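Show me any protein, fold above all:
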Amino acid sequence: MPVSIQTCEKDLKLPKDVVGLTIPVGASMNMDGNALWFGAVAVFVANLTGIEMSIGAQVTAVLLGVLMTLGSPGIPGGIFVATTIFLTSLGMPVEIIGLLAGIFRVMDMGITTINVIGSVVAAAIIGNKDKRKDLNHLKKGHTNVT
């Protein structure tokens, strides 16, 4: 989170008060990567175990995944508790969590990247709507982000 705040303030030149609100809230509530994780887990476990998911089950999985995203703790590995609850709610075997733990380190890099990008984009959109500051440098693509 400190790197996201620094990037938004120094490189994107967004107002500090906007960044100070959007990045922390985004870090805890805007977890787009987690939502993708839950969807991927539902499809993966269903295919692996031979469970046929009806349209109703798929809709339930999507809605439950969105709700689980809001309740997922923002700590390393905290998504496993939420994944266990998610699998149990869908009637899928919880024992598969050991297999998921084996691939999670690779998946976590993408999940974290998506979560951080989502929060920074939200800060940029809100900061761009802020009428107090000239943010034309964002439209020209002249940022010093490396």
The chain has a mean pLDDT of 85. The helical segments are 2-11, 16-29, 32-49, 55-71, 79-89, 97-129, 136-139. The longest helix spans residues 97-129. Residues 15-139 form one domain.
